[in-house]
Amino acid sequence: MSSDDTLLDRFYRHASHTDLLDREPAVREAIAGQVADLSRRREPGTTQVRVLNPSRAQDGWTSRHTVVQVVTDNMPFLVDSVLGELSNRNLSVHLLLHPQVVVRGSGESLEVVDVDTADAGHDDRVESWIHVEIDRLPQESSREALQSRLLEVLDDVRRACADWRKMRKQARDLIFELEEGVPDTVDPATVEPTIKFLTWLEDNHFTFLGYREYELVQEDGTDALRSLPETGLGLLRVPEGQAPSVSRLRPEAVATAREPRLLTITKANSRATVHRPVYLDYVGVRKFDADGAVIGERRFLGLFTQSAYAESVTRLPVIGDKVHTILERSGYAPDSHSGKDLMGVLENYPRDELFQADTDWLADSANEVLHLQERRGSRLLVRKDEFGRFISILVFMPRDRFNTSVRERIEQILRDAYGAETVDYTTRVGEAALAQVHYVLRMRPGGNIPEVDPDALEKRVQDAMRTWQEKLTDVIQEHEEDETVADTAASFSAAFPEGYKEDFDPATGYVDLQRIRSVVGDPRRNMRLRLYAEEGAPAGERRLKLYRQDAMTLTEAMPIFSHLGVEVTDERPYVVEEDADDIAMRIYDFGLRAKDPTVWESDDLRSEEEVAAEFEEAFAVAWSRQGESDSLNALVLDADLSWRDVVILRTLVRYVRQVGSFSLEYLESALVANPHIARLVVDLFAARFDPSTGASNTQRDAAAEEVIGTIHEALNEVASLDQDRIIRQLVSVVEGTLRTNFYQLDEDGRPKPHVSLKLSPRDIDGLPEPRPAYEIWVYAPRIEGVHLRFGAVARGGLRWSDRREDFRTEVLGLVKAQMVKNAVIVPTGSKGGFVAKQLPPPSDRDAWLNEGIGCYRIFIKGLLDVTDNRVAGEIVPPENVVRRDGDDSYLVVAADKGTAKFSDIANGVSRDYGFWLDDAFASGGSAGYDHKGMGITARGAWESVKRHFRELGHDTQTQDFTVVGIGDMSGDVFGNGMLLSEHVRLIGAFDHRHVFLDPDPDAATSFAERQRLFDLPGSSWADYDSSLISEGGGVFPRSAKSVEITPQVREALGLDEGTTSMTPNELLTAVLKAPVDLLWNGGIGTYVKSAEETNGEIGDRANDAIRINGGDLRVKVVGEGGNLGFSQRGRIEAARAGIHINTDAIDNSAGVDTSDHEVNIKIALAPVVAEGEMSLEERDELLASMTDEVARRVLRTNYEQNVLIGNSRDQGGVMAPVHRRLMEHLTEHVGLDRALEFLPDDRAMLEHEESGTGLTSPEFSVLVAYSKLNLKEELGESDLPDSPYFEQALRGYFPGPLLEQLGDRVGDHPLRRQIIVNDLANAMVNRGGVTFAFRCVEETGATMPQIARAFVVCREVFGMAGYMERVEALDNVVATQLQTKLYLEFRRLMDRSVRWFLNNQSLTGEMQHEIDRFTGPVSTVRPLLPEFLQSEERERFERQAEEARSGGVPEDLAIIYAGLLDSFSVLDIVELAEETGQPVEDTAALYFAVSERVRADTLLNRVADLPRQDRWDSLARGAMRDDLYGVLKALTRTVAGSTTGTSADGRVQLDAWEESNSEAITRVSQVLSSVDRLEAPGMGPLSVALRALRGLVRQGATN
Fold first, then answer.
1. Which of 392, 443, 394, 449 is nearest to 422 (CA)?
2. Which residue(s) pair with 789 in the sheet?
3. Is the CB of residue 1194 less than 8 Å from the CB of residue 940?
4. C-beta neighbour count of 602 within 10 angstroms
5. Which helix or strand (DSSP H or E) is residue 210 part of?
6. Dist. CA 490–CA 501, nearest whole Å
7. According to the model, what pLDDT value does residue 867 have?
């Protein structure tokens, strides 16, 4: 074999296989190579030691341990000595390899040979190699120290081994010398035993490690021993020439130093470094001069071999003689009972004592022990070393009294009594009645053995042996009077484990047992605690005892202690079992250390007992999970806070975490680092909200200001800018808090487990935009939640969020969308979300869901806790809540993601609270409108679909069209949607389970099959009858690896030629891109984005693989029945590509609208039910009976909004400048964020204006919502809704059966004003247009209420409702573009008429008066317009009428349409008629004759063509139009006043006037002709024309 193979074979030959299991071959090679490298560097007769932490880079291998490697000449004791040194350093050995190898060669050529050590050649070297892996030493200095020490130890081994034979020879020489004779001064009887002893030693019963001779000399008048260095051998060998050492003898040694005694056997002062790390055995033989005087000593150091301890004492030299003497003195026969017992005592006696002690002492001691066995007593036997270096103490006790605790207690007693530096012990506990412990106490160097009263010491030792039960009996006798005290003590003692008894005295045990029984006796108390200071412990340390039945681990408790700011120093667990009471309890005793010892002590705020109580409670709350454990708990000690006080801070911090960028740990650290400020924040909270103070809000504000001032002063000392910012924001949150339930108690009188804060976000610093009007933050250990409201009356769903770190951000994003969606209903937007923080694993579905429901209940309770109630129409504030705001009783919620089936749960909580909304609190419950049953969401979205298709000239209800969709027939939106037309040809659809493909479906057949699936509970696409699917289609699971693509599917989906298979995800993408008519979204997820967006921005990872861009769509129409199917930018991108699409907020608003109707109907009926006039069952029946009428009202909004968006889009290009200004207005007044809503900025709008393009439908959808919100906000703040005129509007909101039930009481509805405002805002925007109100404000400076009044009057005067109904009836009869013209023409009429009222009438009185004043004349004049209009105006009228007629508009409607703008003039005509007293018809005839003569129609058209780039353009344009109408009115007045007679023929009157003013009329005609010849006259020419007309009025009036 190769040299490398030989090395590995020899190195690992005797290694355990298990030691090498996890070592790779390369590692084994590296280890062996390293040791071999040491061997190559070693010189013969030396030792190489290396201590290292191997690294892969330097050593080719690595280990988590430190490695010791040794190479030296083979000799005994190597491994023992190395391991002994490691043991002295408390280093554990994890791997030991010790090959003995034969090496040949030298230097780099040195190699291991395949030869056993016994067969090594003369030139070969036999080496011992040692590889040890030990506990890791990270410090290099520690490794260097170990390496240096091991070299010293191995040098000792080498010296001992080298001189071993010499030392044995010295022993033999000494024996020979003694045999030759000794001085007469020596007792002859001791010579033979000494020779026998030395002979026995030399006969392999002693490991010789050192030898040296000493001279007994006088040193400064004191006996001393001076070494003879040249005699030293082994460990005592010193370098040649070293000076002798002199050791002065201690007084005890001096006393016997010159006694002519041959032999001394004792223990050396030092431990052996060779073989065993124990104290060396010392054998001294004295030297004498010729006179027999002691002159020195021959000293052997070493270790008795094992035989000295295993052999019978009778066969040991020296000892055997002592034993024989003791037996003789006792008088017992060797074979007698007592003799045998005495021998047993001596056999068990420590051998060191038998060697060292004199016979007299041993005899007395042995006899005492013998008698002790007979009475089961205890005894303390003390012997001082004759040289004064140590004390040997033998303790005997009954065997059953011995345990580790007793041994340690006795050791401590002895250590304290003698002041010992070290104490060694050996124990002997066998079958004998007595246990024996041998203590050896060594004094400090130079120290003397003190005199100790042996009786007092023995008494203390005996007390330490006394049983715990015996002491417990005394304790019980102090507390209980009972004849069975001893039995009780035995029972109690048996309950406690021995470990407890070792750690605690019986008095403590008695108290602890009472605490245990209190836990068992009270089922509600699952734990008790006691914080106490252990006697003698440092000031910063305490101990905490926990008493409980269930087991716990330190791992579980450690984080809680850490969060409380204390370090756990140790843990002592005990199990207490008392059979009589079947108690199985546990006591856990934890050692705790605080960084600052003063935190445990009394201060100005609380006593030491209160500190302990607060700490105990804080731990108990955290352990039971009634409160959370985090670093804020450190403030219980550091800031003198209770755990409830910390909950205040935790509630605030958790909220700030949701609104800011700092991590939770960083926020907490700001308070923990500044405990004094943390306490001030709590004080601030209490000053503002603690109801027990009884202070007024003014007084609270004053107190709060004082605390805030103190906080700001304290912040001046805070160095960290971040901490300063964090604390200021926390203070701002407290200042922005309006209410809290913190001081409310539950039904058991305890604080509620959750904390609610009602906030005013607009008053809190650092919150992201937009800021809601109100916010409720709910914190509990199990849940955190937030509810955002953008108004006092708001509505929105509550979702179960999984975004624990930023769920408020999620909710804030959702509430923005909810505001847009809620623009059509009474409440504004709100949204809530919560996270469950202690959910079990999802694998346990029931437990997981139950915990979620439990958290939902807590969230609902938290919301209601700070919400006012209504009782008998009066506001009732919540108990123990200080309100810093006004009345606020409207709170409704709805289902959302994760809470779809929770509405009944919410209503149950509402009912438990006695909340006035009862089950109107959460819509969608079992007693409400079933959205799926009504199909209302899908029906609302279908109104958008029908409108889109009408714009394309397609009637979805009579003509087939192709569809792809997202969802399945079991779903509400998808299923209902695909049943809204029998002409749907569904080409493909998918849900989370299947892909459905039907490339050429039959509309009728597939409709019937979809209806069957819809009616089949829990159906999926897999239930579709495959025989009804057209050729090439099928249903495919999304779990399939691939799907075959048939030619039919390839054609239907517009796939590339050659496509034969796709993965399911590829197929889903293809379905989305299919070239069909309609994409119907009824699913969950976001499937379309813009090309400029990333999937990460969308936040729907589940659909990343299939999502497409809006520009990739090939459909014509999109219907968004489901939420969030498209990103807003994806919609805009699709719309710009020509696809007809709105937004989900527009399309599926019918669902939220229906819920709002449900809530308001329930609110209206609540008093009737409460007063007993109607039962809940009857109410539910009434609700059900109104389902269809509610649906009709809801769908009307969907219809009107689609018309509105279509009309807006038609005017998008020309109105782009106005839309730009509108966005600026909405940004200022209702917080529109154009970037957030993806609306064009000013630069993009200017591009629209230059290119003549406008906004898309998705963009208009946003503007529609914000325009309504703006109107609702401003109208809601006025007194307009209080006008009796709007009573009819209120009644119009509710279904007829409800009105019949309530009668006039419907006017008492709490939301009367809001309902009216909502109806009015919807009407103004839907019919007046997105910019209608804004332009009125811009052009007239009127207020929104004034504009609304004018709108209502004009709406009624001109018969808007009837006209719109007629136009709507033309759906699918005339082209949508023509319908749009009809709508927009009426809108222009409204624009002009409303401005007329704003400029000419105050409308401060009753609107009905104005309506009555003008309605009749309009009705009179409108049919006569064809007669009144002349020349060009008549031609224009006829052209418009013919355009309508030719497009399919009925004749009468065409006539009305053509004369709409002409009918506006009736307003001026009525006023003229009232002034002149002439009939309206006559005045009208004259008015239109004058209009034709001065070419007013042409001028008005020129004004309409003026630019409207900015506000000033619009103002100038409006002013010119108004001036033109004013001049026309004035001129008519002039003509009427300057002619005589009462001719009804206006032309006759005008001709007469013209004759009198021919010259002036000629001049004006010339000006008008000049202007008319201009291609695009601007403001200048038109102003000149207008001035000429004014001149004509003035001149005509004077002639």
1. 443
2. 774, 830
3. yes
4. 12
5. strand 206-219
6. 13
7. 97
**What sign has the CA pseudo-torsion 991, 997, 1003, 1009?**
negative
Write out the two tokens for 1546. 């206006």
Picking from 1086, 1066, 1065, 1081, the residue whose alpha carbon sits closest to that of residue 1129 is 1086
Which of 177, 175, 180 minimizes the C-alpha distance to 203? 175
- The single-letter DSSP state of residue 314 is G
Closest listed residue to residue 376, CA positions, set 404, 408, 400: 400
Extract the tokens encoding 1053. 């989906």
Q: Say what percent of the chain tops pLDDT 70.
A: 96
Q: What is the DSSP letter of 201?
A: I
Distance CA 1265, CA 818 (A): 10
Which is nearest to 1144 in space by CA: 1155, 1156, 1136, 1152? Answer: 1152
Phi, psi of 1267 (to 5 degrees): -65, -40
Q: Which amino acid is at 1570?
A: S
E-only strand ranges, 760-892: 774-779, 783-789, 794-795, 798-800, 828-836, 869-871, 874-876
Express each pLDDT in 11-60 by its tens digit.
988 887 666 767 888 899 999 999 999 999 999 899 999 999 999 989 99
pLDDT at 883 over 90: yes
CB atoms within 10 A of CB 1403: 20
Total-model pTM: 0.71
Which residues lie closer than 8 Å to 14 by C-beta, 6 or more apart? 98, 99
- Residue numbers annotated as active site: 831
Written as six digits, the tokens of 1308 are 């008492």
Q: What are 1279's two structure tokens?
A: 């007194």
Residue-wise pLDDT tens digits, 1376-1390: 999 999 999 999 999
| Peptide bond before residue 99 is cis, with ω within 30 degrees of 0 | no
| Separation CA 902–CA 909 (nearest Å) | 11
Contact between 45 and 15 (Cβ < 8 Å): no
Which two structure tokens, joined as six digits, stand for 1253?
């393009």
H or E segment and range at residue 126: strand 125-134
Provide the token pair at 1051: 């054609």
Pairing of strands 798-800, 828-836: parallel
Contact 1487, 1532 (CB under 8 A): yes
Structure tokens given for 605? 């705020």
Distance between CA atoms of 1468 and 1474, rounded to whole angstroms? Answer: 10
Pairing of strands 246-248, 263-271: unpaired
Share the mean pLDDT of the chain: 90
Span 1517-1564, pLDDT tens digits: 777 777 777 778 778 888 787 765 545 566 777 777 777 777 777 777
76 neighbors 129 (Cβ within 8 angstroms): no
How far is residue 689's CA from residue 678's CA, in Å, rounded to a whole number? Answer: 17
Tell me the C-alpha distance between 1407 and 1066, whole Å: 62
Torsion sign, CA atoms 1409, 1411, 1412, 1414: positive
Which residues, including other chains, have CB under 8 Å from residue 1288's CB and lie 6 or more apart? none
Tokens of 146: 């170990």
Q: Which two tokens stand for residue 757?
A: 């804060």
**Spacing of C-alpha 1092 from chain mean position:** 31
Per-residue pLDDT reduced to its tens digit, 264-277: 999 998 899 999 99
Residue 337, token pair as written in the block: 């009972």
Note the Cα 884 to chain centre separation in Å. Answer: 30
- Nearest to 1330, CA basis, from 1250, 1213, 1242, 1211: 1211
Q: What is the pLDDT of residue 483?
A: 62
Q: How far is it, in rounded angstroms, from Cα 190 to Cα 299? A: 18
Query: Which one-letter DSSP state was computed for residue 204?
Result: I
Burial (CB count <10 Å: 0-12, 13-18, 19+), residue 1591 = middle
Residue 451 confidence (pLDDT) above 80: yes
The Cα angle at residue 70 between residues 236 and 89, in degrees rounded to 5:
70
1351 vs 1360: CA distance, rounded Å: 10
Query: How are strands ordered across the β-sheet holding 294-304?
Result: 246-248, 222-234, 206-219, 294-304, 279-288, 263-271
